[in-house]
Amino acid sequence: MVIHQRADDNPDRDPPEALGSAPATPALGSSLDIENVGKSFRAANGTVMQALSGFSLAVEAGEMVSLVGPSGCGKSTLLRLIAGLDSPTSGELRIGAELIAGPSADRGLIFQQPNLFPWLSVRRNIQAGLVARGVLAECRQDTEHFLRLVGLEAFADRYPHELSGGMAQRAALARALVNHPRILLLDEPLGALDQFTRMKMQDEVLRLWLARRTTMVLVTHDVDEAIYMSDRIVLLTPGPGRVERMIDVGLERPRYRNSPRFLELRTRILEMLHFTGGGAPEPTTR
Ligand SMILES: Nc1ncnc2c1ncn2[C@@H]1O[C@H](COP(=O)(O)OP(=O)(O)OP(=O)(O)O)[C@@H](O)[C@H]1O
Ligand SMILES: [Mg+2]
Predict the structure, then answer these.
(1) From ligand 2's centre to the CA of 169, what distance in Å?
(2) Which of 81, 67, 54, 65 lies closest to 31 in space, CA to CA?
(3) Residue 213 — pLDDT band, cuts 50, 70, 90?
(4) In a 10 Å sphere around its CB, with 0-12 CB exposed, 13-18 middle and 19+ buried, how is residue 35 labelled?
């Protein structure tokens, strides 16, 4: 994947620092193949609820893909299947050539709430996965690296209740990244933040993505966020979730939220989501 510099279409904002620079480390990402996946749940009264049906998606190694769709269409269910926290009723999911058969440190999952352990300091929170896997001694330096990367080195000994929402979410990011996941799954990770912090965190995530080149799947309800962040946007059908449209964003990075091409794409996607009503020309889909 090529990351382009773009500095020519921003009327009133400096480019986000370093968001267009080359990756600092070799790619860690793995490809993800979701093939014809279905997932149903049986309710307590015996009725079967189909959350996903015939869902297929191929994500390239190092790609950033966003999932956008109505509430209840199966986005979190899909991330849980990719994380290996649940298994599909039909179909297959693979990381590279490997069938997903359970959870693995290879796949980090970040939720809307940071879910930090309140009784542990930021540093200890970040180390929790390393402790669980018995590799803290050899990976201790990584903790310090990721503390610096998310800008929390001065807060390493603080506890979660002493952090702002954005800082807590950065700690959650570091806690996932310290395991060097090949795939990072983000389930509305910025949804609880105010708009200003959210935009800063988007840059943070992009910076980390550029530095590590982890494959990322991001669930978001925010069309602007999807365009700002992703290589591709997947629009899902209302439940049971299936791929309705696939949109290649095709904008160079760094991106500007008020550039004409950004705004045009935003209008088209909103029209596709039927928020503004018909008539847009066909976007690039596949
Ligand atoms: N463990 C479960 N048991 C029963 N039904 C479930 C379970 N998990 C999810 N569902 C159902 O599956 C459907 C999809 O849920 P999911 O949480 O994946 O939606 P979502 O797209 O993430 O929604 P939102 O945007 O609101 O987070 C919903 O109808 C939900 O009720
Ligand atoms: Mg969800």
Answers:
(1) 17
(2) 65
(3) confident
(4) middle
pLDDT score at 43: 86
Rounded distance from Cα 75 to ligand 1 centre (Å): 8
Cβ atoms of 3 and 249 closer than 8 Å: no
On whether the 25-40+47-106+184-190+216-286 domain is CATH 3.10.20.30, my answer is no
Mutate to test the pocket of ligand 1, among 55, 76, 85 (most ligand atoms within 8 A of CB): 76
Domain residue ranges of the chain, discontinuous segments joined by +: 25-40+47-106+184-190+216-286
Closest CA to 246 of 60, 98, 40, 61: 60
Distance 76 CA to ligand 2 centre (A): 4
Q: For residues 32 and 217, what is the distance between their CA atoms, to the nearest angstrom?
A: 10
What is the spatial distance between Cα 20 and Cα 5, in angstroms, rounded to a whole number? 5
The arithmetic mean of pLDDT across residues 157-161, rounded, is: 98
Structure tokens at 190: 């910025």
Predicted confidence (pLDDT) at residue 55 exceeds the cutoff of 60:
yes
pLDDT top residue among 218 and 274: 218
> Are the CB atoms for 213 and 142 separated by under 8 Å?
no
Ligand with smallest separation from the Cα of 51: 1
Confidence of residue 9 (pLDDT cuts 50, 70, 90): very low
Q: Hey, which of 68, 73, 86 would you mutate to test ligand 1's pocket, going by the most ligand atoms within 8 Å of its Cβ?
A: 73
Question: Can you read off the two tokens belonging to residue 43?
Answer: 């309710």
- Residue whose CA is at the smallest distance from ligand 1 atom 2: 41
